Amino acid sequence: MSFSNDSHLTDPACAELRAWLPDLADGRPLPPEAAHLAAHLPACPACQAELAELRQLFNDLDALPAELPPLTMRDDFQALLHEEKAKLAAASPTGLTAARGGQPLQSAAMQEEKPGPQRVLAATQQWLRVAASVALVAVGAVLGLLLRGGPVAPPLAQNTQAAQPQQATLSVRLAAARQQPATASERLQLVSQAPAMVVEPNDPAVLTLIHTLDTDPNPNVRLAACEALVRLRADPA
Description:
Elements: H1 2-10, H2 12-18, H3 21-25, H4 45-63, H5 71-91, H6 108-113, H7 117-149, H8 157-179, H9 184-197, H10 204-215, H11 219-234
Helix pairs in contact: 7-10, 7-11, 8-9, 8-10, 9-11, 10-11
């Protein structure tokens, strides 16, 4: 028996198989690189006995009831965690007094409250875009109101008579383009022609441009109406 145990300890095949005995006891097969050891196990009583002991040990461990940590352990862990956090906060430079002028250093929380340059720049750009959109509509409406209520210079009778058909045609075409299902390109073309065809501040086409700026569904048409009102304000004649 002693000779058998000694041979089991010195046999290279037993030593190589011993590394895979826990896997076999757990029900897992030998991997391909250890498949040649499968023939050694049936012929070695010592390896079989060691495998049986491991299986019995695993079964006994599986039969043990699951142990749960006591609730006090969680409370103790939380207390230790808070204590360590307090120590780190006290030892950090932000909790000390600065040597420069005897003033305390700013805490990390105060530094985090200050927005970074990128965040400030992004917020500023967003507000500028919103403000520019609102200002575009507001400037167009104000300019239109100023043009409508501005002083009327007494034109010459001949110029007035010559311009009346052209003015009526422009206002009618703009109104018709808004009421009928005209394309956006057609409305854009009519709005772009407005500054050259309007000759007096009280022209009905000015009201149509203002209404187009407020209600047209196409942003390009609204932008063209605003630009037309700006050009009329800069050069009302």
